[in-house]
């Protein structure tokens, strides 16, 4: 199948097919950035949402005089502080300008308005005002639903990899096939920024070719892949996932495309001058595949050491050649381990400081360490073998030539139904079978199937989630709802059970949806909520690129980095699997640690590399704000940052993000050598004397300083270079805090605020678009319903998937682009 011809076909289908699917001949779809409907649109009559009602009990209407007394002094037509004027605003008519009043509610929920130092009403008066304003907005939303519009949604890189896994039983590293996706609203699955271009389509075509050949077993191209040990990975002892009795190295899982020979080339770490370290004593390096040793070689010893002293570059090259092995490997996913056999002689492997890697790149002493491994092949292939992907694909095998066409149609229609996420038609299958016939003529039955599969994987029906645009707000079809559910909870395509439920109409009722939600959350694929949603919401992905400076944090290494992330992932996963209250994320009395992390936290009696659930007896470690992952990603490489930590809490915990910083903000001054060091608090006090900085820092800094006893990698401390740690401060609502326990208590004093923030984040992720002002009544309704069910995770998920924004769709706006970025 010619690559350029396929590209032209895909571009044509994309430009015309998506336009037809939207129901308007190709009118542009509304992007996330421009999806705000005008006020008049909110008045359109639409089918009532599945919820019985989102409206709160109706309190008395808010008093306009309160606005005039406490707000207009700053938010007048003349001053317009923060770009907002309330001079002529009438809370009793809030539905006429929902965007403005939702903005007011956000600040009031955070206790930010009126600001500290300004007159403010008593708590009862302010609470009554907020309840009345919410009731006014929520009652209107319960009468006229505005579900919002989402443009065609391209599978992002993660969804693509998961879809390939579930479609073909084939694990591929999508980061090697496709570029990283843009993010918006904190997530990379937002439809409005998932751009498409001819160059990106070329990459999808290349991915389709690679994946189909690997899955069917027709891929015989010799390739070279590299697998590298992270530069701050400690190799002083046994590495998790490698066998006991070994030291250092790495393991990786690779899908071998053919029964064939493959060459493994192991390269050891060299110092800055090219010297291969650790040659004083003999060490045995081994390569194993699925636990079976396939190669060993000696590194170091008297001969290598003397040769290196004479010519270190030539000796290193000789050792490189010695550590090459060509091995016969069966096709399919195999786990490869490259490591050293641990010595037990007098020349011990044990380091003096078990958690500190030697960062002196000129040091010639120490232990040999694996730097990277190259894998090349296949060579001399003998066949595709018996792999999980071939077993998934070939539902039948023709015994004779006359049976091939019927078997191919069965195989490919089954794959197309899963890939397109709906029952397929004769029109769907016609081009696929044409490609099968072309491939069959050029080779074998398997080649024909591979060509048909390649077209399925390159088809916009697989790469895009496109929903027909209605003429007015209305419910999505059951098939569309099945895709919404699967990509929300699994970040992947629906399985056969979900497609069957959609095709038979069993998703038309709330009970039918709830049955699927229970089933799907119990499925291992629901791990995607941790890997994708929680990982992005809590910024866990940032850990990979966060490298604390060795001089400031000498005991930090990749093992600790991975332990940080695994603790938080296991913690969040326990909330999902055990259907616990999401408030446990703030105040849980348990966590998950291994020996390395327990020592970092000062927890006794935890041994070994396996993670286990433990009780948290030190109150400063309870919940997310006591975990090393959060404390590390909110620090700089060389120090803590109360500003970053305060901003993190405002955005991700309290749902009241600060405005963007003004231009040309001066950097925080560092302590200078030879002068008496100033504490971080003292330096920030100097920094925020700038009026443009003071207003935001007044809100953020106390939150961050409450966590200042945790250093830049989450270890507890009582001093810093400028003196004793001072964790005291006053929050925006006037509450005094003096450390992490007081901060957590202040947050838990208003638990609905965190739950509402959690609902906002999860709903944004689930819808694949940013939330608008007309979505906020739904958020509040889900939050109230969840509170009646002790804020359990499943209650929030059920509330989201039963809501109007999830169950309904709105027409696209005129003038918006069809696909963000164009073609």
Strands, helices and their partners?
Elements: H1 3-21, H2 64-70, H3 98-109, H4 123-143, E1 153-154, H5 157-168, H6 198-216, E2 223-228, E3 246-256, E4 259-268, E5 283-289, E6 292-299, H7 302-310, H8 312-322, E7 324-329, E8 332-341, E9 370-383, H9 388-393, H10 404-420, H11 426-442, H12 445-458, H13 460-463, E10 464-465, E11 474-475, H14 478-489, H15 496-503, H16 510-522, H17 528-537, H18 558-577, H19 584-587, E12 590-593, H20 595-601, E13 612-615, H21 628-633, H22 642-653, H23 680-687, H24 691-705, E14 719-720, E15 723-724, E16 729-730, E17 736-737, H25 740-748, H26 751-767, H27 776-787, H28 793-801, H29 804-807, E18 808-809
Antiparallel strand pairs: 1-10, 2-9, 3-8, 4-7, 4-9, 5-6, 5-8, 11-18, 12-13, 14-15, 16-17
Helix pairs in contact: 1-6, 3-4, 4-27, 6-12, 7-8, 10-11, 10-12, 11-12, 14-15, 16-28, 17-18, 22-24, 26-27, 26-28, 27-28
Describe this structure in words.
With 823 residues, the chain is an alpha+beta fold. Helix content is 41%, strand content 12%. A 4-stranded antiparallel beta sheet has the order 2-9-4-7. Strands 3-8-5-6 form a 4-stranded antiparallel beta sheet, with no helix packed on it. α26 crosses α27, α26 (751-767) packs across α28 (793-801) and α27 (776-787) packs antiparallel against α28. The longest helix has 21 residues, at 123-143. 42% of the residues are buried.
């Amino acid at each position: 199948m010619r690559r350029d011809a396929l590209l032209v076909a895909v571009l044509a289908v994309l430009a015309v097919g998506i336009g037809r699917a939207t129901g308007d001949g190709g009118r542009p779809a509304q992007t996330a950035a421009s999806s705000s409907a005008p006020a008049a649109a909110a008045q359109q009559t639409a089918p009532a949402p599945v919820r019985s009602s989102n409206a709160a009990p109706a309190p008395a209407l808010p008093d306009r005089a309160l606005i005039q007394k406490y707000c207009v002094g700053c938010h007048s037509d003349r001053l317009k502080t923060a770009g907002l004027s309330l001079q002529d605003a009438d809370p009793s008519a809030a539905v006429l300008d929902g965007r403005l009043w939702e903005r007011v509610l956000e600040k009031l929920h955070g206790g930010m308005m009126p600001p500290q130092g300004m007159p403010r009403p008593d708590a009862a008066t302010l609470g009554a005002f907020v309840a009345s304003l919410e009731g006014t907005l929520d009652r209107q939303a319960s009468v006229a639903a505005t579900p919002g519009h989402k443009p065609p949604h391209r599978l992002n890189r993660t969804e693509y990899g998961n879809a390939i896994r579930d479609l073909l039983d084939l694990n591929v590293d999508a980061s090697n096939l496709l570029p990283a996706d843009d993010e918006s609203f904190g997530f990379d699955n937002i439809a409005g920024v998932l751009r498409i271009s001819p160059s990106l389509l070329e990459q999808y075509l290349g991915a389709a070719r690679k994946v189909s050949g690997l899955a069917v077993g027709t891929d015989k191209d010799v390739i070279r892949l590299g697998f590298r040990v992270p530069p701050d990975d400690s190799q002083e002892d046994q590495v998790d996932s490698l066998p006991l009795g070994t030291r250092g190295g790495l393991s990786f899982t690779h899908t071998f495309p053919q029964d064939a020979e493959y060459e493994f080339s192991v390269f050891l770490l060299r110092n800055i001058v090219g010297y291969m370290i650790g040659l004083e004593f003999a060490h045995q390096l081994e390569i194993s595949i699925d636990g079976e040793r396939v190669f060993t070689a000696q590194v170091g010893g008297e001969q290598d050491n003397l040769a290196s002293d004479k010519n270190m570059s030539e000796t290193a090259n000789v050792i490189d050649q010695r550590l090459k092995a060509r091995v016969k490997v069966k096709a399919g996913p195999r786990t490869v381990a490259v490591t050293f056999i641990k010595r037990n002689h007098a020349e011990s492997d044990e380091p003096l400081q078990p958690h500190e890697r030697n960062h002196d790149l000129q040091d010639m002493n120490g232990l040999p360490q694996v730097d990277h491994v190259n894998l090349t092949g296949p060579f001399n292939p003998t066949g595709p073998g018996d792999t999980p992907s071939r077993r998934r694909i070939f539902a039948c095998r023709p015994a004779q030539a006359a049976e091939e066409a019927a078997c191919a149609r069965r195989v490919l229609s089954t794959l197309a139904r899963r890939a397109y996420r709906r029952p397929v038609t004769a029109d769907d299958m016609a081009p696929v079978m044409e490609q099968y016939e072309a491939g069959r003529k050029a080779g074998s039955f398997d080649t024909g199937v591979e060509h048909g599969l390649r077209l399925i994987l390159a088809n916009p029906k697989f790469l895009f989630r496109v929903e027909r645009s209605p003429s007015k707000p209305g419910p999505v079809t059951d098939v569309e709802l099945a895709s919404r559910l699967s990509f929300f909870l699994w970040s992947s395509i629906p399985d056969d059970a979900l497609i069957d439920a959609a095709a038979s109409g069993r998703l038309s009722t709330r009970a039918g949806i709830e049955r699927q939600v229970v089933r799907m959350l119990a499925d291992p694929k629901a791990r995607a909520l941790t890997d994708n949603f929680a990982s992005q919401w809590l910024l866990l992905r940032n850990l990979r690129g966060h490298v604390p400076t060795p001089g400031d944090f000498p005991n930090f290494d990749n093992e600790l980095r991975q332990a940080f992330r695994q603790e938080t992932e296991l913690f969040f996963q326990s909330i999902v699997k055990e259907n616990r209250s999401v408030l446990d994320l703030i105040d849980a009395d348990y966590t998950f640690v291994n020996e390395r992390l327990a020592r970092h936290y000062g927890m006794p009696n935890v041994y070994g590399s396996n993670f286990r659930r433990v009780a948290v007896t030190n109150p400063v470690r309870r919940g997310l704000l006591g975990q090393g992952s959060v404390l590390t990603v909110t620090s700089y490489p060389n120090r803590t940052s109360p500003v970053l930590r305060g901003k993190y809490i405002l955005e991700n915990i309290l749902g009241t993000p600060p405005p963007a910083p003004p231009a040309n903000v001066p950097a925080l001054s560092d302590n200078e050598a030879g002068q008496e060091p100033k504490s971080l608090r003292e330096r920030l006090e100097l920094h925020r004397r700038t009026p443009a900085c003071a207003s935001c820092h007044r809100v953020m800094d106390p939150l961050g300083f409450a966590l200042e006893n945790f250093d830049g990698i989450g270890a507890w401390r009582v001093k810093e270079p400028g003196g004793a740690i001072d964790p005291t401060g006053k929050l925006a609502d006037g509450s005094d805090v003096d450390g992490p326990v007081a901060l957590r208590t202040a947050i838990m004093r208003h638990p609905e605020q965190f739950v509402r923030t959690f609902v906002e984040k999860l709903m944004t992720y689930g819808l694949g678009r940013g939330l608008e002002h007309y979505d906020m009544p739904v958020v509040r309704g889900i939050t109230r319903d969840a509170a009646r069910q002790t804020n359990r995770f499943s209650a929030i998920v059920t509330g989201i998937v039963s809501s109007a924004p999830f169950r309904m769709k709105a027409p696209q706006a005129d003038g918006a682009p069809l696909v963000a970025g164009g073609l």
